[in-house]
Design a protein that fits this description.
Elements lengths: L13 E6 L9 H4 L7 H20 L21 E7 L3 E8 L5 E8 L8 H4 L2 H8 L6 H23 L8 E6 L4 E6 L5 H4 E9 L2 E8 L1
Antiparallel strand pairs: 1-3, 2-3, 4-8, 5-6, 6-7, 7-8
Length: about 220
């Protein structure tokens, strides 16, 4: 499988990607305990993410340990690493970085698809919706999905540092349509380094990919 996310991150990021498949027999007992009551689809997504995460940790030269979940559902990474996991129904990716120097990383993948118009007001701010309305009609769905994905990547970046659940309207995305970057600004009470930060995006293999990292 081609490595889709690597171009979005610095060179010292380890990215591991895989097709989603059921791997219960390869999970550690602590990981299995996190999904004991889950349906098969969720077990496949969770398990593939854990195998990718452990491979990424090994490539960083770190011990292979169970990747369980914290109170908010985020992966718990071992000392020496920060990471993020994303998956669609068929694809999974993990980005892991050494700490120090890196403080956090977030990534998100979404299958390209029409976005449900009924959820747009709950996901996009008024400014984002005005920006969307100025785009050609055939570009609005993909850019609405891009904003959603960028926010998801940012949430994964900020949560390990703040422990806060943010609303979609707490965060505003500005997309550089001439390049491959987006800027996140948040109205929430977060550390200054998280108040305005840039990420990168790409379209590849029928997906929107968003990545963001913090030194």
């Amino acid at each position: 499988m081609p490595n889709l996310f690597s171009p979005l991150f610095s060179a010292d990021t380890v990215v591991v990607e895989s097709a989603v498949h059921l791997v219960d027999d390869q999970l550690m007992p602590e990981e299995l305990g996190c999904i004991r009551q889950a349906v098969e689809r969720r077990r496949a997504q969770f398990g593939t993410g854990r195998l990718c995460a452990r491979r990424a940790l090994a490539l960083l030269g770190l011990p292979v340990v169970p990747i369980t979940v914290g109170p908010g559902g985020a992966p718990l990474w071992p000392a020496g690493a920060v990471g993020s996991i994303t998956h669609t129904s068929t694809y999974c990716a993990v980005a892991v970085k050494p700490t120090p120097p890196w403080r956090s990383v977030g990534l998100d993948a979404e299958d390209l698809r029409p976005i449900d118009p009924s959820i747009v007001p709950s996901v996009l701010t008024d400014s984002e919706r005005l920006w969307l309305e100025d785009l050609p009609s055939d570009a609005r769905d993909v850019h609405a999905l891009l904003v959603f994905s960028a926010k998801e990547a940012y949430y994964k970046l900020q949560y390990p540092l703040t422990g806060r659940f943010l609303d979609f309207h707490d965060v505003e995305i500005e997309v550089d349509q001439k390049g491959d970057a987006f800027r996140v600004r948040t109205r929430a009470d977060v550390p200054a380094v998280l108040a305005s930060i840039e990420g990168r995006f790409a379209f590849a293999e029928g997906k929107i990919l968003c990545g963001i990292e913090l030194l």
